[in-house]
Amino acid sequence: MSQSRRDRLFLFRRIVISGLLAIGLCYALIFMKLPYYIFRPGTAEEIRPMVSLAQKADAEAGAFLLTTVGVYNGNIAGIVLARFLDYDVRKVVEVRKEGESDEEYNRRQEYVMRTSQANAIQAAYHKAGVPFRIEQTGVMVLRTLSGQPVPSVLKPGDIIVSLDGKPVLKSEDLTELLKGRKAGETVSVGYRRENALQEAKLELVSQMGEQGQTEEAVGIGFVPADIQEVRAEQEGRQVTVKAGEIGGPSAGFMFAMEIYNQLVPGDITKGYRIAGTGTIDPKGGIGVIGGIRHKVVAAHEEKADIFFAPRDLKPGPGESFQPALNTTEAENQARRIKTKMKIVSVGTMDEAIRYLEGLPPKL
To answer: What's the CA angle centered on 70, arms 68 and 72, to 5 degrees?
Structure first.
């Protein structure tokens, strides 16, 4: 073999090896998932299209906006970039429960959002003086327990509605119907999946807790969560919320503000774009949340005029817990990005409404 041919062969091998190494490096940087989540600014979305009232509500000159944090699976490139862009990087085990899959985590966030929406409707009904009642409508499968035969049939998000033909409206119904039953017996379980009713024969098992403890009672092998619906006594005052795939509890406060605005005469937005965040309890108390600095960025990018931030939570005399400085973090971020958006600290829905009532209409 001539020297020139050997040189060409050597060069070809180097090119092939370099190409393979480059492909491998790109795969590792971009496609190889690491056990981390990356948190960054998400979206600020108008709530009115997500909320509907049975009777016609007054028009809004402004808008209420919920804010979100974008959550992404971490890879090498993303984590490196996050350090430069001031995003948050957290271990998966710090976010998900032990043994919880991605799907189960997402379903848990969906359930928490549903609970938050129910709280928001109650808070708005209380404030607007609308009589209502709570109806139990089924038991959601939050997650299936490891080592149980259920995963091949039930999936996270399924709603259990009957057992052996008898209605199941809440977890207590399921417990009562299983009294006296033994592991190995077969039961007929009715469940709803994506609005379609289905039925399956399942074998009862010794119920395992989330940490693996064996309980005396038998069960179907899943973690239950009660589903509640808030029903207005007057049909025209019924509120429906459809938030798509948004999960978690932190939009509850802003949902309550939008619902209240639709229930009462007039328009409390007065032409302002009003963003914010915070959990809500049925009586209108606002709770702290995580990732608020990312939400301030999202609201600023959507040209919000006002951002409601939960009041800082600090331990009092004799108390010991980690402070949650939502307002302080929001104000610091607002200064950092040089936004004209006003940060307003609130602890209750009443405080937020009073603040808006004191504003002049936006010109």
So the answer is: 155
